[in-house]
């Protein structure tokens, strides 16, 4: 686990006057430790290893906090969660590349894509306030495995 990243979110929380509880921090660490998106129940099972008394509301409240602060993203199509690559360094919209083979998720930030979407919406008098751009396919590692 990248302790510098944990320190970064601790500092952001302190600056915002919000509380990064031990459980919120632990859920964030679990999300960061996984190469793939994690569901709430996967996170609960992992959290129970260090906190046997943990219940679903504990995880859901932590996820809600982490989402509100911009530290994680929700993968809508799989109802799972990944770390935000910029940890809310700035407000942004992302494109998620989701491997249907191994479950890995890559977050991309492409300002030209977002600008094109905004331009297309504007043509129709529509103001976008949120994007969920998810592309499913096969990652390079899974493609390479299939070729062997």
Provide an overview of this structure.
The structure is a single chain. By secondary structure, the protein is of the alpha+beta class. The protein has a single domain (3-147), classed as Arc Repressor Mutant, subunit A (Orthogonal Bundle). Helix content is 48%, strand content 15%. The protein has six helices and five strands, in the order H-H-H-H-E-E-E-E-H-E-H. The chain has helices at 3-16, 22-33, 40-50, 56-68, 111-123, 140-147; strands at 72-75, 80-83, 95-99, 105-108, 133-137. The strands form two sheets. Strands 4-3-5 form a three-stranded mixed beta sheet, with no helix packed on it. The chain has a two-stranded antiparallel ribbon with strand order 1-2. Helix 2 packs across helix 4 and helix 3 (40-50) packs across helix 4. The longest helix is centred in the first third of the chain and has 14 residues, at 3-16. The protein is globular. The chain starts with a helix and ends with a helix. The relative contact order is 0.12.
Keywords:
single chain; 148 residues; Arc Repressor Mutant, subunit A; three-stranded mixed β-sheet; 48% helix
Secondary-structure blueprint of this entry?
Blueprint: H1 3-16, H2 22-33, H3 40-50, H4 56-68, E1 72-75, E2 80-83, E3 95-99, E4 105-108, H5 111-123, E5 133-137, H6 140-147
Parallel strand pairs: 3-5
Antiparallel strand pairs: 1-2, 3-4
Helix pairs in contact: 2-4, 3-4
């Amino acid at each position: 686990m990248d302790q510098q990243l944990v320190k970064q979110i601790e500092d952001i929380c302190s600056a915002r006057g919000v509380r990064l509880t031990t459980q919120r921090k632990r859920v964030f660490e679990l999300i960061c430790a996984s190469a793939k998106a994690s569901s709430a129940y996967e996170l609960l099972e992992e959290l129970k290893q260090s906190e046997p008394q943990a219940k679903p509301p504990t995880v859901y409240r932590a996820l809600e906090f982490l989402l509100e602060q911009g530290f994680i993203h929700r993968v809508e199509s799989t109802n799972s969660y990944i770390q935000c690559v910029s940890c809310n360094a700035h407000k942004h919209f992302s494109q998620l590349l989701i491997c249907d083979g191994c479950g890995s998720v890559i977050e991309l930030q492409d300002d030209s894509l977002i600008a094109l979407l905004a331009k297309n919406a504007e043509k129709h008098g529509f103001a976008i306030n949120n994007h969920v751009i998810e592309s499913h396919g096969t990652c390079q590692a899974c493609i390479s495995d299939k070729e062997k």
